[in-house]
Amino acid sequence: MAVTSRPVVNAAGHRPLIPGLLMAIHGRGILLEGPSGAGKSDTALALLDRGHALVADDAVELHRAGEQLLGSAPQRGRGLLCLRDVGLVEVTELYGPAALREEIAVELCIHLQRDPGAPEAEAALHGRRDRCQLLGLSRPRVTLTDTERRPLAPLIEAAARRLGAAPPEPPHPYETTRGVPA
After folding, report:
1. What's the distance, CA 173 to chain centroid?
2. Which of 146, 159, 141, 149 is nearest to 115 (CA)?
3. Which end of the chain has fewer CB atoms within 10 angstroms, the N or the C?
């Protein structure tokens, strides 16, 4: 399993910043990362439609509190979501005050990419999971390919619910599933 470090920008007198988008999904902090145009903000809009909350868009301020990695929005961009072709939108105007969180502990990173990469049998069975390093703390990361046909919002919800789960064991050939032999 690969572990990669994320570059962190630290302007004098400010908390470290990383590029990305931070959401509260099922009460968990999920960091969406990926290149510009990968679909982070559009995916955030779909997640807001499903009742989740935005913490930060485009830049995420990070700080450590023991083994917790806390993320928030820089003051200047707090509550704003930048949507290509639409512009800046104030999420509380569209979705109400519950759609915005001040801060949340980052528990999972989701890397969005346009290119699906080489097919791997292991990834087909267990997903494309590895770990990333942020401020010296390791967090699980799932890589998702963003295409027009993929429902990223429910995929991210599933990853958030599955947070921390080990890859599933393949079923034993003699076990049954719903009364049908495997």
Report:
1. 35
2. 146
3. N
What pLDDT digit, counting tens, does each position of 41-99 carry?
889 999 999 999 999 999 999 999 999 999 999 998 899 898 888 888 999 999 999 99
Query: Tokens in use for 152?
Result: 């990223």
Q: What are phi and psi of 36, to 5 degrees?
A: -55, 135
Angle at 150 between CA 144 and CA 154, to 5 degrees: 75
Task: Name the amino acid, one letter, at 168.
Answer: P
What structural domains and CATH numbers belong to the chain? 3-181 (3.40.50.300)
